[in-house]
Amino acid sequence: MSNENLTVPDPRRVGVVDKVVIILDALEVGPANLSTLVERTGIPRPTAHRIATSLMGHRLLSKDDLGRYMLGQRLTELSSAVGSDRLMSSADPILQQLRDLTGESAQLFRRQGQFRVCVASVERPVGLRDTIPVGSRLSMKAGSAAQVLLAWEDHQRLVSGLAGAKFTPTALAAVRRRGWAESTAEREAGVASVSAPVFGRNGKVQAAVSISGPIERLTVHPGRLHAEVVIRAANQLTEWLGQNSLPQS
Predict the structure, then answer these.
(1) How many domains does the chain have?
(2) Among residues 88, 98, 136, 146, which is most buried (max CB within 10 A)?
(3) HTH iclR-type domain: from which residue to which, for each copy (predicted)?
């Protein structure tokens, strides 16, 4: 492939970091074997090979079935992290609106390993409420937000996540089908919640928007009361992240 569309600095006058960027830019147009990578970048073959090998060690590059260099999974993960920062910066006004519409505390959760972490929270100002401060680490084994964060995972992570969980595969299938989850006394006695997924550009669930409060107000079927408005809030965040259309159930 020709490098005529790439603006390549003189590799003799740039440092290692610059060479890394030049290689990543060159692979943005598609996979390349070492010879093609040298052609696209102008970087000497031994140097290109050394840098590419190092980038593979950091998962910034990988190889396809033909043995060609291609952009790696780590770049996707870093891109998701950027989306997370953007997500949190826009969450508060949407959560405030959700709280005002439902009268219940509203939260935004993201998965971190075996936990879900509250990254944004707006509490009901008065009366009995479910208080979840920002930074709280809750179990991925219980609660409507945990259901949402797990329901769209691949099969292996789904099976692993269900081990010891208070919800069942049937429950997660229902979450995927209808696009929201509910729980009553699953995470904590007397507490009910409703959650919906926020999707990123890659079609994967990036976060869960939730409301939570006492069962006395939310009832044993809180989704009947608030699923529609929670989904609407989650869709606003999905659209803000640049998702043009929601994945199919």
Answers:
(1) 2
(2) 146
(3) 14-73
